[in-house]
Structure formats: C-alpha cells, structure tokens
User: Which sequence fits this backbone?
C-alpha cells in the first residue's frame, strides 16, 4: 500500500427526479447563471425546456453558452469566459456529458485566470480558483461529474490536454437522461469508464484490497449492464448502474494505495482525438487490448495482474496462466466489438502517417517510462500499428 | 437502484508519515487548538509527544481535553465545550479512535449549540454548525474519520445515541499508529468495520452493483487481514488495509442505491453498551450471527442475500441454498471466535434482566419494522437471549 491523499467536495444527487434539487443547488452561489451545453440533444429530449422552466420560475437570470464540441475546444472556453466576465456570472450550470462539464470547469477557472487560456490548459497546476459549477449529467462516461479534471483540445496545434480545474459543487445524476443516448455513445462511454479503471487496476501494487475490489466491481458491472442498456435503452437499472460506476471510476478511490500507472491509454488516445477528433471512448476501446498484448509480451513479470483480471473479472479458470492472461485480453476485445465499437483505426479512416509524432506527444519526453510497463516512443508506435 | 445523495467533504491523508501534514491541516483554521484524546495510550506510544512538538514548533497554542471514555459520555462533551468557549478555541485536534473523534464532533457542534447538550445529542438533526475538526486516527474501527456522525452516551439514563454532528475537515490516517493496538481491540474494531457493511449489505435492493461489490470487497479484506494483524501486529500491509476499509465502510458509498436497513445490529448493540459499557465491536460481533439466524428463520424470502454472502464473501459453493446460507453465518461466528472475541453475553457477565427495556429502547417505537427483516420488540429480546 502506497500513501495517498483524497477528497471529493462534490455533492451527488443520484436518481430519478433529482432535478427537483436544481434550484437549491444553484441558489447559494447567486442568481446569474451561465447555462452550458453541447450540440443541442438536450433541446430534442426536452431537458433544456425543463431546466429553463425551473430557472425562470425560481428567478434566475440565464445566459447561454451552447454548441460545446464533443472534444471541447479552447475557443469554447474563451467564449464562455468572455460571457462570464461580461455578464457577472455567479454560477455555471453545465447540462450534458463529460465534454460539456470539462469545458465548463475550464471556463469556471478561466474567469479568474490572468493570461492566455491555452497557457492555463497546457500548464500542470492544482485545482484553481474558479466559479462554482453545478452539472446535470446526461452521459455515463468520463466521470467529470465527480472529479476536478477536464480535457481541452487545441485543434490548431493538434493538442488535447487534461488538467485540474475545479470540482463540481453539485452533480445531478439522473439515469433517465441517458435513455436517449445512442448505442454507439453508450458503448463508447462504457469503454471510457472501463478504461479509467484499467488505468488504475494495472498497477504493480499487489496489496491494495479496497482499490482492486472496487476496480473489479466496476468492470463486472460494466460488462453486465452495457449489453442490457444496448438491448433496452430505457432499462433503468442498467442505466443507473452505468451512471453510478462512471462517477466512482474517476473518483480517485480506485487508485487508493496504488502506484500510479501514468494512464498510458489515455495519453495515447488523446493524440488520436487531437489529430482525428474521434470519440474518446472508441479510441480507448481500440487501444486497450493492443496495449495489453504489447506490455504482456514486453514484460511477462506483469502477467499475474492479467491472471487476476481473467479470474476476478471474467470468471475464467485454468492452470496455464499465460493462456489465461491472453484469453482475458481477447475476451475484452470481443466484448467491445460485440458492443458495436469499430475496433480498428482503419475503420475510422486513420492511417499511420502521424504515429511517430503522436507517440512523441503522448510520451511527453519519457513520461510513460513510469507507467505499469514502461513505454518508449517506439512501443507506442507499435501499439498504434497494432490498432490499424 | 434507489435514489441517493452523497458528499464527504473530509480530506484524507493516508499512510506512513502523513503527520507531516498536521500543521498545514490545522493552520487555515487558527492557532488555538483543543487537543482531545482518550485514556492516555497516545502518551505511552509517544504520539502525544510527537504531536505536541509539532504544535509547539509551529506556534500553535494548545489546550487539552484528555480522558475521553471508550463509550464517550455527555460529561466529556460538556467539559470540552466549556474549554472551547472559555479559551476561544479555533480548531479541535482529535488524536485517537472513534470514541475520541465522536466526542470531538459533539464538542465541535456543541460550542455553537444553544441549549442543553444532551438535548443536542438526543435530537435527530442534520450536520450542525461546528468548529473545524482535524483528527489523527489510531484505531481502525468506527469510520468516524470519514463520516459526520458520532455516538454519545448518557450513563445516568442508560442511553447511547448516534447523531449527525460534523465531518472532519482533515483525517490523518497512518496505519503505523495501530501497530500497538491490542489483539482484543484489533478484533473488536474489525468486527465494527464488518458490521457497518452488514448493516448496508443486508438490503432488499438486488441491483446496486457498486455498493454490493464494495461491501463484499471490504468483508473479504477484513477476513483476510485481521488474522495477519493479530499474528503480526506490525504488518504494515494488513494494518493499512484495515484502516483503508474502516473509512470506506462508514462513508455512505456501501449504501449507494440501496434501501436503508435501519442498522438493526447497531441499534441493539447501543443498548448493550449503554447498560453495560462493553466494547462496541464486541457487542456487534456477538449480536450479528444471532440476528442473522433469527431473520433467516423469520423470513426465508431473504435467503438469497445470505446465499450471495456465502458465495461472494466466503467463496462457498453448493446446491442447497438453505445450507449455504446457514453455513455462511456459522463461518462468521467461528471467524469472530477465532479472532479472540468472547462470543456470548454470559462471558461478559450480562444476564437477561434488562432485555425487555433494551429491546424497547432499540426499537424506538417500531423503528426497526423497516429494517431488512422487520424486528419487533419480541424479536429483539429473542436475539438478545440467543446471545447468552
């Protein structure tokens, strides 16, 4: 067990109808609200009207910042910050998935940031001074509703960077808002949840019982509930379990006492999204089994962890540990494919022309040498190639 | 999945040497510190001197409130509140186990409470306005380091009541401080951790994957690590796992989405402690298997939950579900006995003379009719009798 520090100041209201808490969640912070959202799906589902009715009935003044992109851009952060500064915004209300919430976190911090906002997004720092943020979650995926981080893209220079900004004060997590999420986004979101766990689970620390048990619980719940949610999009139990595990997966609790892995799949995926603007969870699903096979081959001393994954997550049994480890990886790839995720980069129209540059970015001067199994730029290129 | 609301504002610093964070944890709140502790074991272990040296070196002014009882009394709360008010205390530093931290929470809230402090302790209310509280944990048991509750006793009227007071701002959790905890208290503390889980795990809600998985993880970790800690008191990994699960067990996360069970074993145990001042965890260990047998017999429709307990926690297998359920309960009782806990009330010198009165208190006018399996006063008396 390694040392750890942990806090999550966010209050979660989870379940059907929790939007009834919205006014009380916002009111302590003020009456001037910036409402942020994405491409407009909340208008189609009626959630936008519901929110606007509540805000109007309860006497809030609302300014809007819609159109936030799936991989949110620095330009959206700049636009939001300008709106906040010009209108004396007191609290941000993000309605959407991880992209909208991530962008809103950067806006919340950006309001107080003196200097260029891409500089803020691309400099490592702790949680910043920020406007209070309340969110209504509409996608089970990133866990942004229960952590302090956000990921912002600068497509002009093909960079997508995660950073700490601020924790939401309140997250309203109503699984019924995910009934209308497409099969594709449901599968991609679940792959994202699972990847957050893989990034922590695949660690050298053998004795962090709580963290490992939570990791296995989240993975088993994802494996159980994704097929149900795909077959029955309005199955409340399946949607509720996916939403509940999405928050915990990114909470830091699954890493309690564990040596940090450096989050290699996220580092590699951010390059795919930065160069090709693909869906984050799809990139992660494609990369993960290839990364697993690569590191298992490169360093067989990590095999015990894959055996544990096989036994405790997939319920596999067998004497041959090497076969077990590989079978677990194959099963994971098959699971993603069965969920409708395109499992090669070629299917997304991505070739190898930028792999060397992407690998160098992902590795940030040797950053991934400290991951579960050390990765060089060459390793990363090989992993990208295995995804073609 | 039921709805839930959740927040834990406490910051945890977990691991060896985290006392280095003490001054930074206290400083934002002020320089006048009330140091609270129990019967003086922290003087024997040297922790008292370490803390006093840090506080002195860092320029804090310290007032002391030692001698807090294992089942902390309302008189200690009154004494602490008086010290705070007379000396303008700005922050409380609790060094000890759950009793010291519970009492300190009541002191922290009591400072602002206008009126009789037993009235505060015996009235159901939410988290109260309170002085900030920092703690250094020395016993893995109650989870008081990571929740807002406290339990205070009034021995004049044989009442022991739990209530919400305040969350610690910071909890410093260093497993090495538990190396000197006796075998008896180590076992009792682990029984308390396990009971916090049983109170949530035995619920009618079948589909709360995350909560059930965390419950099973905590139970398995307790079962694995208690025998190691008893055999090797300074085994860091075992002590660290017990400390880590103690915090999560009481965090509210193991109840995510589950129908509340009413915490029947705690209600019944508080009467044992209120009448006989016994160690809380010992009372829980004695009661739990008898409560389990009683409810399984009373309402066989809850058997599925015991079968799950048998399979997922004890790794038992078998076709006969009834036999499996009972075997899991027997195994639990055996586990507690093997850990050195006296497993009958007779061994503690307790007879049945107060059972009817205790049952009526525990049930608070029918409170336990909503527990996992409804309990009447008569049921509770039968459970107490089975413990003789």
Assistant:
């Amino acid at each position: 067990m390694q040392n750890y520090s942990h806090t999550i100041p966010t209050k979660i209201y989870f379940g059907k109808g929790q939007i009834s808490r919205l006014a009380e969640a916002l009111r302590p912070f003020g009456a001037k609200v910036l409402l942020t959202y994405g491409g407009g799906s909340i208008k189609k589902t009626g959630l936008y009207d519901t929110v606007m009715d509540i805000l109007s009935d309860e006497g809030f003044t609302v300014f809007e910042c819609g159109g936030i992109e799936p991989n949110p851009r620095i330009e959206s952060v700049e636009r939001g910050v300008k709106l906040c500064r010009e209108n004396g915004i007191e609290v941000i209300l993000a309605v959407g998935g991880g992209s909208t919430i991530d962008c809103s976190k950067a806006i919340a911090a950006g309001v107080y940031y003196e200097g260029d906002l891409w500089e803020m997004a691309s400099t490592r720092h702790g949680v910043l001074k920020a406007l209070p943020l309340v969110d209504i979650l509409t996608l089970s995926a990133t866990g942004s509703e229960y952590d302090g981080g956000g990921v912002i893209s600068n497509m002009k220079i093909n960079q997508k960077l995660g950073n700490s900004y601020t924790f939401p004060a309140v997250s309203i997590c109503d699984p019924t808002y995910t009934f209308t999420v497409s099969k594709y986004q449901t599968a991609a979101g679940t792959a994202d949840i699972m990847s957050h766990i893989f990034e922590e689970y695949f660690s050298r620390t053998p004795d962090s019982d709580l963290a490992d048990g939570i990791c296995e619980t989240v993975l088993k719940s994802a494996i159980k509930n994704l097929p149900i949610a795909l077959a029955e999009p309005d199955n409340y139990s399946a949607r509720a379990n996916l939403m509940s595990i999405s928050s915990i997966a990114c909470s830091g609790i699954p890493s309690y006492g564990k040596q940090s892995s450096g989050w290699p799949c996220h580092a590699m995926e951010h390059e795919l999204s930065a160069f090709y603007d693909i869906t984050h969870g799809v990139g992660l699903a494609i990369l993960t089994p290839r990364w697993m096979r690569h590191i298992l081959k490169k360093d067989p001393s990590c095999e015990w962890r894959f055996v544990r994954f096989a036994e405790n997550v997939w319920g596999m049994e067998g004497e041959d540990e090497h076969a077990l480890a590989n079978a677990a990886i194959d099963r994971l790839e098959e699971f993603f494919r069965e969920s409708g995720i395109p499992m090669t980069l070629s299917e997304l129209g991505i070739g190898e022309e930028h792999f060397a540059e992407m690998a160098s970015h992902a590795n940030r001067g040797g950053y991934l040498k400290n991951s579960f199994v050390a990765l060089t730029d060459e390793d990363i290129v090989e992993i990208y190639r295995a995804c073609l």
Q: What stands out?
A: The interface with chain B takes residues 1-18, 175, 207-210, 212-214, 216-218, 220-221, 224-225, 236-237, 240-241, 244-245, 248, 253, 256-257 of chain A (CB under 8 Å). The CA atoms of residues 229 and 235 of chain A lie 6 Å apart. DSSP finds 15 helices and eight strands in chain A.
